[in-house]
Amino acid sequence: MSTISMKQRINKTIAAFGLIALPAFAIAEQQAANLDQLLKQLEQGKIAQTKQNQQREADFKARVAEQDNMLKNARTERDNAIATSTALEQSFQANEVQIANRTEALNKRLGELKELFGVLQQVAGDTKGKFQTSVISAQLPGRDVFLDEFTQSMGSSTKLASIEEIERIWFELQREMTESGKLSSFNGEVVAADGTRRQQEIIRVGGFNLVSEGKYLEYIFETNAIAELKRQPSDRYLASARAIAADSSGPVAFSLDPTGGSILNLLVQAPNTRERVDQGGPVGYVILGIGLVGLLIALERFVSLFLIGRKVNRQLKSEQVSKDNPLGRVMSVQADNPNVDNETLELKLSESILREVPKLTTRLTLIKIISVVAPLIGLLGTVVGMINTFQAITLFGTGDPKLMAGGISQALVTTVLGLVVAIPMVFLFAYLNGRSRNIINVLQQESTGIIAERSEKGA
Amino acid sequence: MVFIYDIINTIQDFIETGGDVLVVIAVVIAIMWLLIFERLVFVFAAYRTLKKQAQQGWSSRTDHSSWHAHHIRQAMVSRMSSALNNNLSLIQSLVVLCPLLGLLGTVTGMIEVFDVMAISGSGNARSMASGVSKATIPTMAGMVGSLSGVFAVTWLQRFAKRETQIFEDSLSLVDNNDAMARA
């Protein structure tokens, strides 16, 4: 394809669109070989451009009439628009005046109704809140939907409440009131403490509590679920919950939570015995371990002293000297030394009694020590807990008691554990010491007497 | 009937206000007084016959002054003393335990108070009241229990000591024949 023909074609298209032609050298296809050739090319290009320009001017002149026409059209369009705008503005003003008049008329006619609608909206909002926390919603779900829509429409638009809607609110309030004075049973899905769902017969006591199968339930509005409380109140109250389920004609005593479940919910937060003991921390476990050791020792002592005591009593009653008990062993001294004088016999007797006493009092001191040490370790735990508390105060200040509660719990729980271990130990020591003392008394005081009686009888 | 029901209710309320420790204190006081009554019955009824029998047994003996007689007398006195002192140390320890249990109740009550503080996050006096009553009622009950027992125990101990002495003195070491000879 030659350069010229190419250029011409391009020019044609440019003319057709009435655009500015591109400089000719820009579309020179091939590089000029030398300066002469370049000069020639430039010349040719110039000629072509002048031709082009002339062509365009001619075209433009030919189209003047067309442009006038377009201008005229645009002007008429503008005039029309201005006219419309003025008309609309006028009608807008007229409308505004009309609206103001109408609003005034409406306000005049509403008069006190305006306040009534305000109150109505407020009541509807309050009632919605009340229904969300009321256990009656467990039996009659979906009461809040209508109220929700009603308050929204009252608040957003200028729409007035219809008689039906007002009456419906009245009805809902009245129904809540009536139901809160009734004991009614209905079937519902109960979420048990372990998460399983079951259909059960639920008894609603007024607006206070839900009870089912002798257990207190809570109504969770957000999920519209009825759940068993994870921790139930004490048996005395549960018995009353069972009593209300039993079909009886007369009045039944029932323990209800007047707060509608708040108090019962706090039960869940209170720790049980296991969690309590855990609060004591390592010190608490040490105390419990020592207490267990003490109990085992006491048990062993109790059994052995009981057996020894029984054997000693048998020995007291019987004529035969048997060596399976301390008294028998003491008495056998006389049989082993038949020919000694009284002084020597007495010495030998006291020697054999001294041999028996440690066997009877052994490990009793350990129980005594445990009963003394346990409260001391409890005191140690108290101090450790208080240190934790003060550490919490140092870090977070005294603003939040919850942060200090951990240390205080430890402090008090260890004290409790110390006392819980010490009290039975004191009791056990007193009891066991009494038993062993009795047997030792028999050995020390009575053995010689018994020997004397026997020798008299024998003599 | 209603009157009895009222009393039961009052007691139940009192126990609930005092908490579990109060039940333990009640049991301890009950055991203590059972033992005390057993002692009183022994002192006023069984002890006299026992004493008479022992004294007759001693006076029926001809020999009152030999080594044998001495030791038999000692054994008799010791038997009587242990019979008089039976369970006394146990009662004494129960008297000591009562205030200790009261202290335990105090601490558990205080734990409850701090629980309420931890849950509610405030020092609302009304919500802490139940914990405070659990702290104070067992203390009071323990004190009352030990006070009621202290007098009884002290009296019983003094009686035992005195009676042992009197009994020992009543067993004379003088032989009957000597006494006759002197007469």
The biggest sheet of chain B amounts to: none
| Structure annotation, total helices of chain A | 15
Distance separating the two termini of chain B: 72 Å
Q: Could you tell me the strand content of chain B as a percent range?
A: under 5%
The whole-angstrom Rg of chain B is 26 Å
Mean pLDDT of chain B: 87
Arithmetic mean pLDDT of chain A = 84
Percentage of helical residues of chain A? over 70%
Organism (chain B): Thalassotalea agarivorans
Membrane topology (chain B): Multi-pass membrane protein
Family (chain B): Belongs to the exbB/tolQ family.
Protein name (chain B): Outer membrane transport energization protein ExbB (TC 2.C.1.1.1)
Please give a structural write-up:
- The complex is a heterodimer of chains A (459) and B (183).
- Chain A is an alpha+beta fold.
- Chain A has helices at residues 3-17, 35-62, 64-110, 113-133, 136-139, 143-156, 163-179, 235-245, 262-269, 273-279, 281-317, 326-336, 342-361, 364-396, 401-458; strands spanning 183-191, 197-205, 209-212, 215-220, 225-228.
- Chain B has 183 residues and is an all-alpha fold.
- Chain B has helices at residues 2-18, 20-59, 67-85, 88-120, 125-170, 176-182.
- Chain B is elongated, with a radius of gyration of 26 Å.
- The model of chain B has no long low-confidence stretch (mean pLDDT 87).
- Chains A and B meet through helix 15 of A and helix 3 and helix 4 of B.
Short key terms for the protein model shown above:
heterodimer; A: 459 residues; alpha+beta; 5 strands; B: 183 residues; elongated
Chain-wise SSE layout:
The complex is a heterodimer of chains A (459) and B (183).
Chain A: H1 3-17, H2 35-62, H3 64-110, H4 113-133, H5 136-139, H6 143-156, H7 163-179, E1 183-191, E2 197-205, E3 209-212, E4 215-220, E5 225-228, H8 235-245, H9 262-269, H10 273-279, H11 281-317, H12 326-336, H13 342-361, H14 364-396, H15 401-458
Chain B: H1 2-18, H2 20-59, H3 67-85, H4 88-120, H5 125-170, H6 176-182
Helix pairs in contact in B: 2-3, 2-4, 2-5, 3-5, 4-5
